[in-house]
Amino acid sequence: MHSLRPLIPILLAAGILLGGNGLQGTLIALRGVQEGFPPASIGFMGTAYFAGFLIGCLIIVRLIRSVGHIRCFSALAAVAACATLVMIISVDEFTWIGARFVSGFCFAGLFTVVEAWLNSGVANSDRARVLAVYRIVDLGAVTGAQFLIPFFGTEGFTIFAVMAIMITMSLVPVSLGDRSNPAAPPDIKLDLKRAWTISPLAALGCVAVGMTNSAFRTLSPIYAQNIGMSVADVATFVSMSIIGGALIQYPLGYASDRYDRRKVILVTTTLAMGSAAAIGFLAGDSRMLNFAIIFVFGCFAMPLYSLSAAHANDRAESNEFVMLNAALMLFYSFGAIAGPFTAAAAMEQYGPHALFHFSTAVYVAFLAIIVWRMLVRGPAEDGERGRFTALLRTSTLFARLAQWQTGGSRPGTQQKSGNACTYEAEDLTRTPPTGMETPNKRS
């Protein structure tokens, strides 16, 4: 724990941001319905968010290199807080769409800064522990923040002020916790064509998951409210899916390490499709039945991104991990841009359960792709397969943070016998900045 102590302020800032971002996504949908916004407009707010997020992922490293971590973080946090307050000053759907685009850009940058800072401050021997803590922070912050909505209510100014306060408070640990300014990360070299060549299944899987998960994240509060749930029930409904995904992700990953990963993806997608169809056709307005099935949906829908990425890493060269996973996150973003608006249009036309009819249709298409790829290409050889790693979709730099795991081998590609995996030089020789040294740093 001593070696992780210098990173506590950054992890604290990450928790505040993750919680505030999760809170904002749910609140926008609930408050939008109260203000009379049509589902299509609320869906387009989700599309705008992910469009801003995509642009932020592409350019934010250059901004960090220009002005440094602290200035970049401070500027983005200030703009994100202002975008939050603008939404209550001007309750207009077009203003909210613009504000969500700005928020997406800012949060992409904020998470990139946090993960670049963590990457600079952690020794290779400590990466597994930092990743575990980071995931716990993510789960706890996003789940806990949902229940601020029933506590403060969705009406009036207060809940927007709480969100702005959370974003602003993330500046405190960053500003006071560490006086260093670590070296800016190198630009991520993106090659979407190469990523597609490595694994069309993984690329299309990330697009499919982006469509369904972003639609669920944006519109599930509307679904829950429209079938008669209270605000507290809506928070519980969203949280059940998050908890389900967190609990089952590692057992699925373990199974995918032992068997053909595509078969695990096939079974997982089938169960995600089945649970989406069960909500769409069977759950009706039963509160407990919806809670139970959405937990199952989260168990199988949420881990599909990491399973797809692990399959792609099995096919990649040992020095392609960072590039490949950054590219897969962009594929996810492409799907996430399309998903909310398309699903919202379906809900407007056919009712709230169309959200899960949409997800069912996407999973059916993805199942066809999995079967096609299994027919045209054999499984990865045992010597090429690596270990599953749960990946967060917070920034393109998360892959750089996750590339070293227990024993020094990166996720997705084991060290081949007789040939040690190679990594980019800056990741092996990086020295933590002053104030963030770790005693176990390898020479």
TrEMBL record:
- Pfam families in the record: MFS_1
CDD domains given in the database record: MFS_YcaD_like
Q: Which residues form the Major facilitator superfamily (MFS) profile domain?
A: 198-443
Instruction: Give the record's keywords alphabetically.
Output: Membrane, Transmembrane, Transmembrane helix
- Region feature (Disordered): 405-443
Q: What is this protein called?
A: MFS transporter
From start to end residue, where is composition biased (Polar residues)?
405-420
Q: So where does this one cross the membrane?
A: 41-61, 73-91, 97-118, 130-151, 157-176, 196-216, 228-252, 264-283, 289-310, 322-343, 355-375
- Native species: Aquamicrobium zhengzhouense
Against Gene3D superfamilies, the record matches this protein to: MFS general substrate transporter like domains (1.20.1250.20)
